[in-house]
Amino acid sequence: MENGFNMPRINEPAPAFEAPTTHGVKRLQDYRGRWLVLFSHPADFTPVCTTEFMAFAKHHQEFQAIGTELLGLSIDSHYSHVAWVRNIREKFGVEVQFPIIADLKMEVARAYGMIHPGAADTSAVRATFIIDPEGVLRAMVYYPMTNGRSIEEILRLVKALQTSDQNGVATPEGWQPGDKVIVPPPASTEEAEKRVSEGYECVDWYFCKKSL
């Protein structure tokens, strides 16, 4: 850690937290057994963040359908979050039904490396963390202050991770459910010889796809 900046690591336990939210106190352990998308935004009542929150809200049921919960965060107060959620409902007609962490002391933001001094001293950058049902951090994506995320891509990534876990496969660029998946490369010359005759769609011994 340098100057209070910490960076979590993929495939290691996600930093534990206990924090007040718009739905009461939430802990990382509360999400055990389900996937969690934890995402930060620089500030309430800002245009880019508002578009992101509306998109998360519109996809909320799709996330829940694949066993995934959403949890937002910013370094605004609990009261600011409540007012912002009400404003989004009143002005845009969108109901935000997932909780938002009020992280005034920046404890969660610092634990997850959301504070980037080069971007802003007191705001969390647009960071997204995908945590699996065992509490392990599986993916993280950082965006600059000026540009919004694609929520559909985050949803796609969760589906891809779940597919890899369930089937022991990898997924190619832009993979969507129903597309062919990539079979893990053979680990020995003997396996490589067998691979091309195992019934997969192979371009070469190291690059084979199959349908699930």
Automatic annotation (TrEMBL):
Class of this enzyme: oxidoreductase
GO terms (BP aspect): cell redox homeostasis; cellular response to stress; hydrogen peroxide catabolic process; response to oxidative stress
Disulfide bond among keywords: yes
Protein EC: 1.11.1.24
Domain of life of the source: Bacteria
Catalytic activity: a hydroperoxide + [thioredoxin]-dithiol = an alcohol + [thioredoxin]-disulfide + H2O
Function as written in the Swiss-Prot or TrEMBL entry: Thiol-specific peroxidase that catalyzes the reduction of hydrogen peroxide and organic hydroperoxides to water and alcohols, respectively. Plays a role in cell protection against oxidative stress by detoxifying peroxides.
Family: Belongs to the peroxiredoxin family. AhpC/Prx1 subfamily. Belongs to the peroxiredoxin family. Prx6 subfamily.
Protein name in UniProt: Peroxiredoxin
Active site residues of this protein: C49
Record's keyword terms, sorted: Antioxidant, Cytoplasm, Disulfide bond, Oxidoreductase, Peroxidase, Redox-active center
NCBIfam families (alphabetical): PRK13189.1
Residues in Thioredoxin domain copies: 8-163
Other facts: The active site is a conserved redox-active cysteine residue, the peroxidatic cysteine (C(P)), which makes the nucleophilic attack on the peroxide substrate. The peroxide oxidizes the C(P)-SH to cysteine sulfenic acid (C(P)-SOH), which then reacts with another cysteine residue, the resolving cysteine (C(R)), to form a disulfide bridge. The disulfide is subsequently reduced by an appropriate electron donor to complete the catalytic cycle.
Pfam families with a match to the protein in the record: 1-cysPrx_C, AhpC-TSA
Binding site for substrate: R126
HAMAP family: Peroxiredoxin (MF_00401)
